[in-house]
């Protein structure tokens, strides 16, 4: 799903960490859709809606990678997405292969302040909402393991 492409871009991160952050990224994208009519007013914008994966970067032990296009989007297919519905329902869409087969993951989401928490089965992921407007959502997820801090920044555009 999204994890394989994420691992490709972040070879420095162990396979386990890459998988954890990629799932986190997927979950975050579904939780933060925007429906505000003012792109500059991030305080009143909502994450409710459908968000396409657009850009990503990583920070490992304080070293930031350049922001790159999200490479999990399959060439010739619609963009992978996260969709946050009212009532706490989320769906993640992953287009795969030349036939653009759509895989859907489902779960729940809740926003508390600027923290977005997504639950998919037994996996629970929290991310910080950096900004949300009517057209863009930026999320940041972090984890520290064995003294190494991993941060993933993901930018979504409104579908």
Describe the structure in your own words.
The chain has an 8-stranded antiparallel β-barrel. The chain is 16% helix and 49% strand. The longest helix is centred in the first third of the chain and has 17 residues, at 15-31. The protein contains 2 helices and 10 strands. The chain starts with a helix and ends with a strand.
Quick tags:
alpha+beta; Lipocalin; 2 helices; 10 strands; disordered N terminus
Task: Describe how the helices and strands are arranged.
Elements: H1 2-9, H2 15-31, E1 49-60, E2 63-64, E3 68-69, E4 81-85, E5 89-96, E6 101-112, E7 115-120, E8 123-132, E9 136-145, E10 148-158
Antiparallel strand pairs: 1-2, 1-3, 1-4, 1-10, 4-5, 5-6, 6-7, 7-8, 8-9, 9-10
Describe the structure concisely.
The chain has 159 residues and is of the alpha+beta class. Helices cover 16% and strands 49% of the residues. Strand 7 and strand 8 form a beta hairpin.
What is the count of structural domains? 1
Query: What's the story with the biggest beta sheet?
Result: 8 strands, antiparallel, barrel
Q: Can you tell me the overall shape?
A: globular
Q: Indicate the CATH topology.
A: Lipocalin
Percent of sequence in beta strands: over 45%
- Sequence of strands across the biggest β-sheet: 1-4-5-6-7-8-9-10
In CATH's first tier, which class applies?
Mainly Beta
Going by CATH, the architecture would be Beta Barrel
* Span between termini: 20 Å
- Give the H and E element order: HHEEEEEEEEEE
Task: Evaluate the radius of gyration.
Answer: 15 Å
Number of helices: 2
The level of helicity is 10-25%
Number of strands: 10
Structural class call reads alpha+beta
């Amino acid at each position: 799903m999204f994890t394989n492409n994420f691992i490709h871009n972040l070879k420095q991160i162990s396979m386990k960490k890459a998988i954890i952050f990629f799932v986190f990224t997927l979950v975050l994208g579904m939780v933060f859709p925007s429906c505000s009519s003012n792109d500059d007013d991030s305080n009143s914008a909502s994450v409710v809606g459908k968000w396409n994966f657009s850009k990503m970067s990583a920070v490992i032990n304080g070293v930031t990678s350049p922001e790159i296009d999200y490479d999990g989007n399959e060439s010739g297919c619609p963009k992978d997405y996260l969709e946050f519905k009212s009532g706490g329902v989320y769906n993640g869409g992953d287009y795969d292969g030349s036939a653009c087969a759509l895989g859907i993951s489902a779960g729940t989401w809740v926003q508390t302040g600027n923290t977005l928490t997504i639950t998919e089965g037994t996996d629970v992921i929290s991310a910080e909402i950096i900004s949300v407007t009517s057209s863009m959502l930026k999320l940041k997820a972090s984890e520290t393991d064995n003294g190494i801090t991993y941060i993933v920044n993901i930018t979504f555009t409104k579908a």
